[in-house]
Amino acid sequence: MRRSLVVLAIVAAPLLARAEFRFPVPPGWVDLSPGAPAANFEGLAPDFVKTLRSGQFRAFAFDVAHTERGFTPNFNAVAMDPPTRVTEANEADLAQALFGPIQKQMAGAALVEKGIVEVGGVKSLRIVYDSEMGGTPLRQMAVLVPGVPNTAVVTYTALRDQFASLRPAFEAHVARIEGAREDGGVSIVGPVARDGLVGALVGAAVGLGAGFVTWRRKRAARSSGAAASTPPGGA
After folding, report:
1. pTM of the model
2. Closest Cα partner for 31 from 55, 10, 52?
3. Strand, coil or helix: 154
4. CA 148 to each of CA 78, 83, 182, 195, 201: distance values in angstroms, whole numbers, following the listed order
5. Ranges of each domain in the chain
6. Class assignment of domain 2-224?
7. In this structure, what are the phi and psi dihedrals at residue 202, rounded to the nearest 5 degrees?
8. Angle between the 2-11 and 46-54 helix axes, to the nearest 10 degrees?
9. Quick one: pLDDT band at residue 186, thresholds 50, 70, 90?
10. What are phi and psi of 128, to 5 degrees?
11. 5-50 tens-digit pLDDT
């Protein structure tokens, strides 16, 4: 069931343009970005691995240390054409463009906050909203970061009651994103809606599937340790 959610979300993801951004992976997180070590992808659905390596996502990572109740917090980044510009005048329109499709597609979606923040000295849009996937209540944070020649949408996903404790780490990660720039872009509703929805859906669905991967790895590690400590012929 959970893997099916992952596959369905991946199938909906369009081929997205690349941008001159750099998204560092937080220490301790499992990097699933294009070019990450092959071992990081072990145990994941083949369709998901293929999509991750295709370049559709500029970055993807799991916070396995904070897996709870079968859900693994994560972030992903997508890039879109053309560049945009965030201002006080278009803040409401961009927020609606980013959240509107999410509200239609995800159960329990409700906007918690929106506002303008700076990333690398560039005005960016941040929204925080509640959502639900497979009956699991989530809270997600999406940040639209202008750049040249593209714009990025970075989505962070966690359990709803876990989000507050992880938010400082999410915000610290946003501050480390490189490549934010302004170049006279304008509000672009279509790409914002499409790519923001992709990040939200995949972040929610993949978090559910990742719980199985984390559990299986821990079990395998315990089994290996037990086998190594047992002398030949048994205890």
Report:
1. 0.82
2. 52
3. strand
4. 14, 6, 7, 17, 26
5. 2-224
6. alpha beta
7. -70, -40
8. 30
9. low
10. -125, 135
11. 444 444 444 444 444 899 999 888 999 998 888 888 887 878 878 8
